[in-house]
Please model this.
Amino acid sequence: MHVPYEVPRLTVSDATPGAADVDLIIIPIAQDYTAPAVAAYDEVVDGELSAALERGEFRAQACELLVARASRREWRARRVVFIGGGPRAGIDAERMRRMAATAAQAARQQRHQRVAWLDAEAGTLETAARVELIAEGLTIANFDNGLHKSTNDRQGFITEAVILAPAEAGAAAATGRMTGESINAARVLINEPGNFLTPRILADKARDLASVPGITAEILDEAAIAALGMGMLLGVACGSAEPPRLLVLRYEPAGAPAGQVLGLVGKGVTFDSGGISIKPADGMERMKDDMAGGATVVAALRSIALQKLPIRALAVVPMVENMVSGKATRPGDILRSASGLTVEVNNTDAEGRLILGDALWYARRLGATHVIDVATLTGAVVVALGKTTTGLFGTPEPWLARIRAAAAAAGEKLWPMPLFEDYRELLKSEIADMVNSPGRPAGSITAAMFLKEFAGSGPWAHLDIAGTAWAEESKPWQPKGATGAMIRTLVDVARGGISGV
Ligand code: BES
Ligand code: MN
Ligand code: ZN
Model:
């Protein structure tokens, strides 16, 4: 049986690389390296670095690898992995994390379990931020997605990692490791197939993930959901043999600014068949990841609490399975939302906005002043922005600016999309307050316009992660499957605080 991940022991040490008691040392090197630096490393690897550079076998491009033998007798490590950084000015948060994860993957492939990272390349980053990213990168590389394989392949997890950097960076490393652990845990949930992760199971597992000091959890069952009048959530749930759940997490640290509550809302569809408006068979299996937004907000709140950030925050995650049956909602049915608005369901596959509408309303009712929802909401956002950039929607502008700044610091890509009033008329219905599916034009925008009707009047943002939640192909820094996108960005929003918006 495979283990999904292991969190390595991680320390920061100002020891010299030769003294580090590890099997392998990772050395980052920018493309605009200096001759003295290469000469110094050459002494350790018996000229292998300059030889590889001269022959063009290694060019220090971003995330390029060179594995060499440490020939110095007095060194304890036997191997050196050089990890390219590309041009120094381009070594930002995303690049540094990818470099760390790529090098750690290479160490695992070489069967080295005790590794050190020599903090020799700063790029554009401050020490604490850099060490945090390195720790996070080393931790997320210790992840495999073959949880259900019965063979007992050797996974070669890193057991011990040392970052050779100023000792003051110890706290930053611990934070990065903890964030990496949250990301890994979220990725395990996102990868789980629908039969292993029903709404009830997801509710339990998400609550367990968030059971850290300072967080209180509540799981509402179908009766409690009905009592709140959440007709949209129930309308999606009723086609499934599995009942829905609504997870509510609260983090209210003493001394946090009163009057401000960050509300995180995440889409928790454990499987999206499309319902009666059924999806094509090809690729439908991926729809097990349709709860990625839910896992993201739970993992983020966990990290916020573990960092003891001085901010009040809550998470609301509606959990359902969107299925086909004699009890399923039909196209044309009308649902009444908890807010009182009525919706004509002209497409049962536009289910995410229905469950999020009720959840957004509830987050406001629980006192959220600043709301962010995260959802694998539309295929259209993949058409617009592709697989590496998250769509950002919402209002007002300063709130979106906060989120963009947080994403930049976190090394994640998102890009703003418009919510012009003209789009509102596309939601019109003859017989109800609105339809849930206005059709193909501006598909990710009309989905966001629908959510806006339930988002209340305070700051609200919607992150469409339909493209970014899942990697279709594996990369040196990330295996195929769940990515954990936007967890770090949400944590960085909380770090920056929400006052003044
Ligand atoms: N979960 C899907 C969106 C999705 C599509 C995520 C592809 C990841 C990859 C969502 O529930 C959905 O089915 N959206 C429809 C909306 C349409 C019916 C208006 C879509 O995008 O096709
Ligand atoms: Mn759908
Ligand atoms: Zn969906």
